C-alpha cells in the first residue's frame, strides 16, 4: 500500500470536484456580474433582480451539465473499483 496511490486518488477526486463545481458556479457568477453591471447602470437596487437570474442560471447549468457530471462520477467510481487490487497489494 504505497502512499503515492492514495495521493493520486485524492488528487484525482479533488480535480473532479473542482471541475464539477466550476461547471455549476461559473454560469451563476457570469449572470450575477451582468446583473450587477445592469443594476449599477440603472441605479436599480432590487434584491430579487440579483437573486432570481443567478438561481435560474444555476438550475439551467445543473440541467445542462447533469448528464455529463453523472457520467464523470460513474467513470471515476469504476476507475476506483479497478484500482482496489493495486491498493491491497
UniProtKB/TrEMBL annotation:
Location in or out of the cell: Cell membrane; Bacterial flagellum basal body
Designated name of the protein: Flagellar biosynthetic protein FliQ
PANTHER family: FLAGELLAR BIOSYNTHETIC PROTEIN FLIQ (PTHR34040:SF8)
Entry function: Role in flagellar biosynthesis.
Annotated GO biological process: bacterial-type flagellum assembly; protein secretion
Keywords: Bacterial flagellum, Cell membrane, Cell projection, Cilium, Flagellum, Membrane, Transmembrane, Transmembrane helix
Transmembrane stretches, start-end: 16-39, 51-70
Pfam families the UniProt entry points to: Bac_export_3
Membrane topology: Multi-pass membrane protein
Organism this protein belongs to: Veronia pacifica
Membership in a protein family: Belongs to the FliQ/MopD/SpaQ family.
Source domain of life: Bacteria
Amino acid at each position: 500500500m504505497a502512499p503515492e496511490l492514495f495521493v493520486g486518488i485524492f488528487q484525482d477526486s479533488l480535480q473532479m470536484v473542482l471541475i464539477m463545481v466550476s461547471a455549476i458556479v461559473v454560469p451563476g457568477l457570469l449572470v450575477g456580474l451582468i446583473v450587477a453591471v445592469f443594476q449599477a447602470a440603472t441605479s436599480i437596487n432590487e434584491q430579487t433582480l440579483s437573486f432570481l437570474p443567478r438561481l435560474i442560471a444555476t438550475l439551467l447549468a445543473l440541467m445542462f451539465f447533469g448528464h455529463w457530471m453523472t457520467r464523470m462520477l460513474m467513470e471515476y467510481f469504476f476507475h476506483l473499483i479497478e484500482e482496489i487490487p493495486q491498493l491491497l497489494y
